Amino acid sequence: KNAIEVRRVRKVFGTGEAQVAALDTVSVSIRENEFFTLLGPSGCGKTTLLRLIAGFDFPSAGEILLHGHDIAPLPPFKRPVNTVFQSYALFPHMTVADNIGFGLEMLGKPKAEIKARVGEMLKLVKMEALSGRRTSQISGGQQQRVALARALAPQPKVLLLDEPLSALDYKLRKEMQIELKRLQNETGITFIFVTHDQEEALTMSDRIAVMSAGKILQVGSPHDIYDRPAERFVADFIGETNFLKGTVVSKKSGVATVKIASDAMVAAGFPDSFEPSGEVTVVVRPEHADLIADAAKGTVAGTLSNVVYFGTDTHYHVKLDGGDDFIVRHQNSRSSAVAFEPGAKVGIVFEDGGARILRD
Ligand code: ADP
Ligand code: MG
């Protein structure tokens, strides 16, 4: 079942020449209980979409459904939706407990119920010991927990999180990533999480929508998005990728044969409901390829130009015979030996399914 359905939503700011389409006809469905992430660079429209769902602003066109009902007539405070902002927006002069209970007070809940619920929330975010502190006297990570508890206290159906971890340092951010996953699991609330950090999106999400310039380019599981990027922007934004230009020469049951520079033939998969033909771009992740000593036996051949050791893995930079640059990432083990030296003639073999044709 869907918690939220966004249907052909546009949002335009300004008028005339100064007009900006912050959202350019976006459609997406977010399932109940899902940890769903909007991923994209600054300015792509992530916050705008959250604000429309929360009701802080209205779409220029299109509609948003919550559990199948159009929420347009509902003001923000009547929507079963709550938001955690990047800045936390806590009340500094109030205690941790009073901050958490604030939303419930506003809803006019009975004192006893508020007290019980605040107690539960303090426990959920492990802040019982600091319940009487003012929020100006606790750390950034603790403030983050209080902001989460305050947003969860009224038991929203959907929690919107707008880059909630970006103000935290690296170690704390890693801790809070695990904490957020736990909170989502324990409460069963649908989370719509916004980030511009691809690694954060890959590690935390059930599904990801990749956004660019007001559009959603691809929606899928982290595995889908990483291993089967449909467009150049997605492949480029998430992880490191090799791009090869080529021409489709034949097609059979979901796999195309593509001739690339130096006349090498590459077997490549492609997105559903897409018929590749003519000139195409093929992507290969660096870890979906490996080096062999016999250049003639590889999918493609080239000359090793550089070897970079990273501890966990080694990156081999290869100048392909056709002129393209290509990176192979080899995962190291204790017994890994440096088998290739710069200048060596090498072959590159692609893992089965490792090469994919992009839609654009
Ligand atoms: P993100 O959260 O992905 O960084 P935003 O949703 O904040 O992106 O912004 C998307 C685009 O809409 C940007 O070009 C931004 O400048 C523009 N925009 C956002 N809010 C307003 C506003 N209130 N008035 C005019 N332009 C806006
Ligand atoms: Mg934003």
UniProtKB/TrEMBL annotation:
Xref: SUPFAM superfamilies: MOP-like, P-loop containing nucleoside triphosphate hydrolases
Domain (ABC transporter): residue spans on this chain: 4-238
Record EC number: 7.6.2.11
Pfam families named among the record's database cross-references: ABC_tran, TOBE_2
Single GO molecular function: ATP binding
Reactions catalysed, as given in the entry: ATP + H2O + polyamine-[polyamine-binding protein]Side 1 = ADP + phosphate + polyamineSide 2 + [polyamine-binding protein]Side 1
Alphabetic keyword roster: ATP-binding, Cell membrane, Membrane, Nucleotide-binding, Translocase, Transport
Enzyme category, top tier: translocase
Function comment: Part of the ABC transporter complex PotABCD involved in spermidine/putrescine import. Responsible for energy coupling to the transport system.
Subunit structure: The complex is composed of two ATP-binding proteins (PotA), two transmembrane proteins (PotB and PotC) and a solute-binding protein (PotD).
UniProt record similarity statement: Belongs to the ABC transporter superfamily. Spermidine/putrescine importer (TC 3.A.1.11.1) family.
Protein name: Spermidine/putrescine import ATP-binding protein PotA
Organism: Mesorhizobium salmacidum
